[in-house]
TrEMBL record, chains A, B:
Segment forming the signal sequence: none
Family classification: Belongs to the SLC41A transporter family.
Positions in coiled-coil regions: none
Keywords on record: CBS domain, Magnesium, Membrane, Transmembrane, Transmembrane helix, Transport
Compartments where found: Membrane
Assigned GO CC terms: membrane
Name under which the protein is recorded: Magnesium transporter MgtE
């Protein structure tokens, strides 16, 4: 921030490309970010605040001038305020909430009581609802009142005498009916609702099943508590769809890049311990052939090559199969076709890799026996890897498990054992062709 | 399909839970699926057809009675018809298109000319558009005509004198304005448009940036070609968000679970060959210590345990960091915080695993020296794995690359080399404490 020209450029960037500019300053100190935000008028600063990561946003929020802080927290899309407040320590959160109008503060407090990644936490409690016996004319008059925010209302929620959700009326229908039409005559059933404690996964399932614009959250009596809006639904979908990458390696669904080390430690440990057990299993295969290795130490050098290649080939098969299941492009019933495809791909990739690898090993060792051993075991273990990569997620799904959960750890065990066993087994069988000492 | 009771049950299941029932029958033969579909009235059969995987759906479609086939292809959401026709061989597709009204057939043919996973292929060409100078009254009259499908129209697209997209009018606004209001006075700018050749990735970026309900596809002159509807946008978002799992292990973006073996072979091969190179690099580390291994063969047995554990710990760190970048919860600027977290988690997980592993190795070998070697190298290599898992995606992103591309292959190289080097290096240093021969 040197001359006035630089300032003007920075301010133009923040105004015109708030999301991009926010990414660029996100890792600066809160004081610096606050200084940048002061370069632009408040209505331009809000989009920048929205695009900051929640953790940064929360620390910056506390330092902002009160009017800008209020502008951020009073946006129509409540979920942003909830995300920021959710990142704050309790005492400072209460201080910030104290500045807000009582009604909004109470609503936000209620939302924040629900656990993270539940429908209650994702919902916006400001809902446009009317008694079912109201008329089109009355609904239109209310929607026209500016503070109702008619631009955000897609569906009017109809309530019965006990204030339970009785149906919804598409706002667009108001245009085609006379003012004295009773709303309930235009209502249609709500395709899906969830309870406030429903996990994000269930929210996303409802979104996908009905291609919803918004999702209503109701209590046990069917009274409406809030709605999860479109932008929040999209974020939830993205979050769920990218989860497999974590669960496949034994990371908890709740861990995020900036979770504490302690959280990461505690949640990852069990799978690492299980992985250790499976590693011992693979090691015992190697131990079984210890005499062969003692005679031909070159085998120890090449052992990781076979296991590494089959591990990678297996991971490829696993990734494609898991994604196919997640996107519902295949079902469990397709197991034979998928397995055949991966077996074929594994075989021919195995042959190709065996050739390259064989040339490399020949140049290094000059031993035709060693080339034969590694080439044969490469093909065998890559076929095994293909089969396992296809079947592990399908079998997990068949057993009613999430096909991603720790699939990578299971697969690695299979590919390690197959790689070690085929390589050392063939070496033992063909030991007459190998040169002792490497 | 035995008695009448079974038939009634099957038919009830198909009618009431079409999506679930479709998953259950998806892997049956097309003839069997067709027989099941004949159990329910056509309007109940369409949702089942919609929930079948596209590949199965396409083969079943050809066998259906003509009226049911037409019902499937003439649904308002065109993208389903496009997906099914896209799976058919050219000759049979033409045969099916021949049964459709000329207008629809031409529209579908045009859409099918765009490559897969482009905006052109995803769009629906039936768009409700009007000249900008039309009035609210005329728009409402047209929307009321049943065949216009007013239920699907959220925004009226306004066209200028050259038929270019000039803005959109929210259908809900019609309700609040007199019939003689000119539409252009109610218009707002279109937040985002894409060209028909825009890749799905760009479609998803526009969706996320503006939280869109639908996305307009325009040609170079700005004339509207079609719209990508909400359900299709959600599928595209899910498809993109789950892509990292493939790209991280060197699988092409275009591969699907049922792609041909040949496609899989061709596209995966380059990364497998690169992986072979890196495997030789790791092997050369082992080769460097061949003398140590020749003396203490127990090292060869335990070598994969260290590399396997650090590989798995690294994969966990990688997954969480990559997802954080994808969900924009962190930026490149957070590298130090993320690295510190993963270093800490790696160290303490390393200590815990070193203890368990040490006990196991002591029980197996009774050698305190070996326990010391594996425990020390476990901690070192797991810290290295944590650091690498955090930094690999961040460095890739910094270099302007997709943080997922082949990150897993790069990481494995790092963890293998770190694991082998620390384990064999420490063993060589402490060789006085080891027992020759294992």
């Amino acid at each position: 921030m040197t001359g006035p020209a630089t300032l003007a450029l920075a301010s133009a960037y923040l105004s015109r490309y708030p999301a991009e500019a926010a990414r660029a300053i996100d890792a600066y100190s809160p004081a610096e970010i606050e200084r940048y935000l002061s370069l632009v008028p408040p209505e331009r600063a809000v989009p920048v605040m929205n695009a900051l990561t929640p953790m940064t946003g929360a620390t910056v929020l506390e330092r902002l001038p009160v009017e800008l802080r209020l502008a951020v927290l009073q946006q129509p899309e409540r979920s942003r305020a909830v995300a920021l407040l959710g990142q704050m320590p309790d005492d400072r959160r209460e201080q910030v909430l104290g500045e807000l109008p009582d009604g909004l503060a109470t609503q936000l407090r209620q939302t924040l009581e629900y656990p993270e990644a539940t429908a209650g936490r994702l919902m916006d409690t400001a809902v446009f609802s009317l008694p079912a016996e109201e008329t089109v004319g009355r609904a239109m008059a209310l929607l026209r009142e500016p503070h109702r925010g008619s631009a955000d209302v897609h569906f009017i929620k109809l309530l019965d005498a006990e204030n339970r959700l009785a149906g919804v009326v598409d706002v667009r229908k108001l245009a085609f009916n006379s003012p004295d039409t009773v709303l309930s005559s235009l209502a249609r059933a709500v395709p899906a609702v969830v309870g406030p404690m429903a996990p994000r996964e269930e929210v996303v399932e409802a979104l996908e099943a009905h291609s919803l614009d918004e999702l209503m959250v109701v209590d046990q009596e069917g009274r409406i508590l809030g709605i999860v809006r479109h932008g929040t639904l999209l974020n939830a979908l993205k979050s769920e769809a990218s989860l497999d990458i974590q669960t496949m390696v034994g990371v908890s669904k709740d861990e995020r890049a900036l979770s504490s080390s302690w959280f990461a430690l505690r949640k990852r440990m069990p799978w690492l311990q299980i992985n250790l057990l499976t590693a011992f299993l693979a090691a015992s295969v190697v131990g079984f052939f210890e005499n062969t290795i003692a005679t031909f130490t070159a085998l120890a050098v090449l052992l990781p090559v076979v296991a590494g290649q089959s591990g990678n080939a297996g991971a490829q098969a696993l990734a494609v199969t898991m994604r196919g299941l997640a996107l519902r492009e295949i079902t469990i019933g397709h197991w034979l076709r998928v397995m055949r495809k991966e077996m074929n791909a594994g075989f021919w990739n195995g042959v190709a890799i065996a050739i390259t690898c064989g040339i490399g090993v020949f140049l290094w060792s000059g031993s035709v026996g060693l080339v034969l051993v590694i080439a044969l075991s490469m093909v065998i273990s890559m076929v095994a890897a293909g089969i396992a990569g296809a079947l592990v997620p399908i079998v997990l799904a068949r057993l009613g498990q999430d096909p991603a959960v720790a699939s990578s750890i299971i697969l690695t065990t299979v590919t390690d054992v197959a790689g070690f066993f085929s390589f050392l087994g063939i070496a033992t069988l063909l030991s007459g062709m190998l040169v002792a000492g490497g």
